[in-house]
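Input for the complex:
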Amino acid sequence: MIAPLTTLHKQYKDRMRRKSMLVLLTQMILLVGFIAIWEWSSKARIVDPLIFSSPSKIANHLYTSLLDGSILPHIGITVAETIAGFLLGTLLGTLIAALLWWFPFVARVFDPFLVVLNSMPKVALGPLLIVGLGPGFGSIVAITLLVTVIITTINIYNRFRETEEGLLKVATIFGATRFQTFYYVILPAAFPVIISTLKVNVGLAWIGVIVGEFLVARVGLGYLIIYGFQVFNFTLVLSTLVVIAFVATFMYQAVSFLERKVTSGWKDR
Amino acid sequence: MSRQKVLELKELSHIYVNASGAHLAVDHIDLTVYKGEFISLVGPSGCGKTTILNMIAGLIAPTYGELTMLGEAITSPSSRLGYMQQQDYLYPWRTILQNVMLGLEIRKEVNAQSKQKIISLLDELGLEQSSDKYPHQLSGGMRQRVALARTLITDPDLLLLDEPFSALDLHIKMQLEELVQSTLDRLGKTAILVTHDLAEAVAISDRVVVLGRNPGHIRKIVTIPRELRAAGPIEARKHPSYQACFDEIWYELDEEMERGVE
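Predicted:
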């Protein structure tokens, strides 16, 4: 006899849950194991504690610097630079993409320049920006902008161009102007790509900010890394990395959440 | 009583020019369409059906010839014209209601009165339950109905139907043909349908224009008997005089295909 449907469903759900639990458990074991071996080999001097520090020292350092608040300004400024960078980069990239779409002649003219700019390592222009804008917040955001804006422009412009002919035809038949076509079709059709570009730009912005802070900053997480390196305090370097890992993940998740919120109603074909 | 001419094509020709050369796609098409008529264009691929439709829609300009709608030359998409494509092309980011409203928004005609009109149109087409849903939540047949509503909301005099039924299952397709024909008849609209499906052309039209290819030209215009047209697309298929009409058009197309082989 066949078991009732509810029983089968319950068995299936139980199987799935067991599998997820197993994955989570393995992840935990790996993480705890890694930290334990690190701690032990540092204590036993199998690795050089000066360079590799140890989890307990890092935890201790994080605890005290959070408690006395000395790390908070660094986190604050770096987060501000990153957010400014990826928001401005996405916004400006979308704006340039719109201009390229509006003026096909300009798009053709600039195509090879965009290709060259895109293949260049943008952070290499960092020193120029620092000289031009002066060291500090402005030049760091500018480096971040440079890292994100070209790829954003290219991605979004391509999406604009690949808008389905049939969707455009609907608006054209209603007598839509060029601006209306953009507003009612091109832009909303590209929305998922704009949001996913925003997500990519979070990652790119971190690169821009950290490199920028390496070069000039007197404050920020990138500065802490460079400072720790210069005074040979690798506990500081590693605990800053831990902070970056946490903040960057949080930021990425926040944008993912935004993405789900914005496109919850509709699906692409 | 003379019937009102909705559309007049006089010696209409179109030449496509591109990097590989110039190519005569449509050659000297003469056709007059009267108010309330349902015309079908059938023919093999390459016979210029889509070119003709795009010229009537004002999307491409004729190279030679005259093209007038209600006495005015067509130079750009006219507000008195509606167009249904093979796929529904509903905007996935808009609800059904918002999709139907699109034409009014573009023409800046959204007001309390037109909103009321949308609601009653959705009602008539059996879409009242769906107005707040998104397109991906509806079946193909329902979506094509929404596309019909979107086309009708701006109250066009002439509808161009570019194979709007071809992507649907047979049953849904015949239901939708029935709905489209009865709705257009009731509203007194004129329609030009492009189709590959001869059975559909015979079952739904007043006249069937058989096109030949290389270049696209009119081979024959077959007038469908009144009783067949009056029966509606589903019943017409079972009518005694249906097969004769079908065979006549079939024969024309067969001849055309033979000509192409030589």
